[in-house]
Design goal:
This protein is an alpha/beta fold and 774 residues long. The protein is built from 21 helices and 31 strands. It has four domains: 299 residues, TIM Barrel (Alpha-Beta Barrel), CATH 3.20.20; 214 residues, Glycoside hydrolase family 3 C-terminal domain (Rossmann fold), CATH 3.40.50.1700; 61 residues, no CATH class; 118 residues, Immunoglobulins (Immunoglobulin-like, Sandwich). Bound molecules: beta-D-glucopyranose (BGC). InterPro entries: Cellulose_deg_GH3, Fn3-like, GH, Glyco_hydro_3_AS, Glyco_hydro_3_C, Glyco_hydro_3_C_sf, Glyco_hydro_3_N, Glyco_hydro_3_N_sf. Keywords: Carbohydrate metabolism, Hydrolase.
């Protein structure tokens, strides 16, 4: 049984949406996705019948670091992959990670996953996919290694910045739209990492133990939607184990769920170095071992010869690859990499994403937008004001053609309307673990189980930087403190040890706020950070992100009121890390195994540990998902734990009020769609993009549910108009089902439910009660 999603997407490349000045929810996508993968079955049978076993097996493993073989004897091109997911990665030598130093491979740096999710706009996600695909084509790529859509289970996750949300519905809507944007423009997606790669700590060996219900309702829906509705052509199996089996050889995951339940017709590739067996993998449904041939090369030929695996299975795996190969036109070699990848159209898309992603968390005394009639000197303080975020840390980065930093954006937009004075304030260059004497400890070594900071004298550089910051703050009318994390602090391959703001920045911030109370703190981060000390000294707080090529311009446009902020948090912001579910239940960090060197780092370094890791000899560590379905706001709501900022939260410069919340009927059955309507009133002076959210609360249920769950939302422009704007949101009854573990199926529970109209998970504005009948 399939669950359905409804959503709107933008049609057409080149269609630019002007933030809150236009409508991000434009026409529905009408393209018919009926199985483009199934158009060539006969032709594929013909191709396979002419192939030798050696040719077939040659397709099932990496040829180069980012390619796998086609069928050269029949003129069928290799598959060319591109990291993904937030910009087309630079060209590397075929068998190493060394750059080729081309002059044409500078790409657009798109805002990373959590930024995209903060737009809460499927239209924007569609545009994002379009832009990625256009640049992939210019580079001769067939498949983008993205979107990355694992649920953000822990606030400290190293790849939270790359993933979308803690909520499966929000993640699903955006991932489907991203996928359609990419695949409508001639490139395949490879949705990753399938599945339950929700932590970086020991990702190459950890065994995730999860209930079938939590798996089906929380962790798998974004993948299911991307496959079923987005018709994703590719899936990447994750590094970890689930319930005892590596994802790359997990029969239940790859065969029973992905291929049988969801009807997936495309190809599965392993994460880099994530294959651990020959027969088990190929039988379970893995198509390509990347990037090597340790298991699906000669070892596979030997296994066929020994009768351990039949050639029919090999044929099936080859067929699945050929379906994708024939659905995506290869870019002729003489057309790839002949012109610069990054194009102004894509920079415009990156700008739109960034503009709609920025979240205004606090604005006491309407400090924002900056009133340039009154504010004559602005102190911009912070390492992140002038830091590039396209690269850093482990994993895919983007060789960006350019990146507008916050400082550059402010200078561009403010020009001579005010004087900008800059001080770095703190530096991210210092070795981790210092500054104990400054009062806070910092970095990845915060409150929980980390190294205890020994009191030390603040070093001279830190003192000098802080003094300079205080000096410029004194001389200014207001301060924009641009702090947060960076791409080395939030990185693939490891999780943060705490949410603490790194590099001593809170001490500098407090010193600055003492001499100038008009401080706006801007958190440039892909994940939640600890804002407790920031709250106490800053009247205004903004969450920005690793926000791409045009990030600085977008931030400046929000801060100066050129556009009103319309981003909404894609995750909850806890007061303390210990409040969040995986920490509160003691299921993360795991203590049953030492932290291994990361599998990818080992692969890149090709050191002795790599061999051990790749063999999978060390299946270490168990992640017991004991919070079950209570991930993110589901936990905080159900356990009545307060949060600093709830999921879905974000202010604008105009206040929006809702009224007339209603459903079209009072009773619904399976297969029907609930249509809810409301009126949104703009009470302010700014045209405002707003995101009404509808959650479902079960009133008299016999089974356990989270207190409420997001089931519908829409991003809409609310113009300044005496008449309110009518908004409609559709919720398929199908999406209210739960996974019945005994029946092994989706089941609709009859009974009373409440639809909650909300500004965010913590602010319910209206209720409607309905009955669901079977
Ligand atoms: C990451 C993948 C990525 C691959 C290739 C792996 O370490 O987990 O997301 O696509 O490397 O760069």
């Amino acid at each position: 049984m399939k669950k359905l999603l409804t959503f709107t997407v933008l049609l057409g490349a080149g269609l630019i949406v002007f933030g809150c000045k236009g409508d991000p929810t434009l026409p529905r996508d009408v393209k018919n996705y009926d199985d483009p993968l199934m158009q060539h079955e006969k032709e594929i049978s013909g191709i396979i019948s002419k192939m030798t076993l050696e040719e077939k097996v040659a397709m099932l493993h990496g040829k180069h670091m980012f390619t796998s073989e086609g069928v050269p004897s029949q003129g069928i091109a290799d598959m060319v992959y591109a990291d993904g997911p937030f910009g087309i990665r630079e060209e590397m030598e075929p068998h190493s990670w060394n750059s080729l130093h081309l002059t044409t491979d500078s790409a657009t740096f798109f805002p990373t996953g959590s930024a995209l999710a903060a737009t809460w706009s499927d239209g924007i996600a569609y545009l994002y996919g379009t832009g990625m695909a256009r640049e992939a084509r210019l580079r001769g790529k067939d498949m983008i290694l993205g979107p990355a859509i694992n649920i953000q289970r822990i606030p400290t996750g190293g790849r939270t910045y790359e993933y979308l949300s803690e909520d499966p519905y929000l993640s699903s809507v955006l991932s489907v739209a991203y996928t359609k944007g990419v695949q409508n423009n001639g490139v395949a997606v490879c949705v990753k990492h399938f599945a339950l790669n929700n932590q970086e700590t020991n990702r190459g060996s950890v065994n995730v133990i999860v209930s079938p219900r939590a798996m089906r309702e929380i962790y798998l829906p974004p993948f299911e939607a991307t496959v079923v509705e987005g018709n994703a052509f590719g899936v990447m199996s994750a590094y970890n184990k689930i319930n005892g089996y590596w994802c790359a050889e997990n029969y239940e995951l790859l065969n029973s769920i992905l291929r049988k339940d969801w009807g997936f017709k495309g190809m599965v590739i392993s994460d880099w170095g994530g294959t651990h067996s020959t027969v088990e993998s190929v039988v379970a449904g893995l198509n390509v071992e990347m990037p090597n041939s340790q298991y699906l090369g000669q070892a596979l030929l030997d296994s066929v010869a020994a009768g351990a695996v039949s050639e029919d299975v090999i044929d099936e795996r080859v067929r699945e690859i050929l379906r994708v190969r024939l659905a995506v036109d290869p870019v002729p070699e003489n057309k790839a990499n002949v012109e610069m990848t990054a194009k102004p159209e894509q920079a415009q898309i990156a700008y739109q994403v960034a503009l709609q992603s920025i979240v205004l968390l606090k604005n006491e005394g309407s400090l924002l937008p900056i009133d340039l009639n009154k504010v004559k000197t602005i102190a911009v303080i912070g390492d992140n004001a002038d830091k590039i975020m396209a690269t850093g840390g482990v994993g895919a980065g983007v060789k960006a053609l350019y990146e507008i930093t916050p400082l550059a954006g402010l200078k561009n937009r403010i020009g001579d309307k005010a004087k900008i004075v800059y001080a770095q304030g703190y530096t991210s260059q210092q070795a981790r673990g210092g500054f104990g004497g400054f009062g806070g400890g910092f970095g990845g070594f915060g409150r929980r189980g980390g190294a205890t900071a020994t009191p030390a004298k603040p070093d001279d550089t830190a003192k000098k930087l802080q003094d300079e910051a205080v000096k410029v703050a004194k001389s200014a009318d207001m301060v924009l403190f641009i702090g947060g994390d960076n791409r080395s602090h939030e990185t693939e391959g490891s999780d943060r040890r705490s949410m603490d703001l790194p590099y001593n920045q809170e001490n500098v911030l407090e010193a600055v706020a003492k001499v100038n109370p008009n401080v706006v703190f801007i958190a440039v981060a892909g994940a939640p950070v600890d804002l407790n000390r920031v709250q106490a000294c800053c009247p205004a707080i903004v969450q920005s992100w690793f926000n791409g090529t045009e990030g600085g311009n977008a931030l400046a446009d929000i801060l100066t009121g050129e556009s009103s902020p319309s981003g909404r948090l894609p995750f909850s912001y806890p007061f303390n890390l210990e409040d969040s579910p995986a920490y509160a239940t003691g299921s993360f960090p795991q203590t049953d195994a030492p932290v291994n060197q990361d599998v990818f780092v080992s692969l890149v370094q090709e050191d002795s540990k790599a061999e051990e890791m790749l063999k999978g000899a060390t299946g270490r560590g168990t992640a017991l998902y004991s919070e079950d379905m209570l991930v993110g706001y589901r936990w905080f709501d159900t356990k009545q734990k307060p949060v600093m900022y709830p999921f879905g939260y974000g202010l604008g410069y105009s206040e929006i009020e809702y009224s007339d919340f209603a459903a079209d009927k009072s009773e619904y059955r399976d297969g029907e769609v609930i249509t809810v309507t409301l009126k949104a009133h703009n009470k302010g002076k700014y045209v405002q993009c707003d995101v009404p959210q509808v959650y479902v609360h079960r009133v008299d249920s016999k089974i356990e549910w989270p207190y409420k769950e997001l089931k519908g939302f829409t991003k809409t422009v609310i113009y300044i108009n005496p008449d309110p704007t009518d908004v409609e949101i559709k919720i398929p009854v199908e999406s209210l089902k739960y996974w019945d573990e005994a029946k092994h199926d989706w089941v609709l529970e009859p009974g009373k439910i409440e639809l909650l109209l909300a500004h965010d998970a913590g602010n319910v504005a209206g209720k409607v009660e309905l009955r669901i009948e079977n």
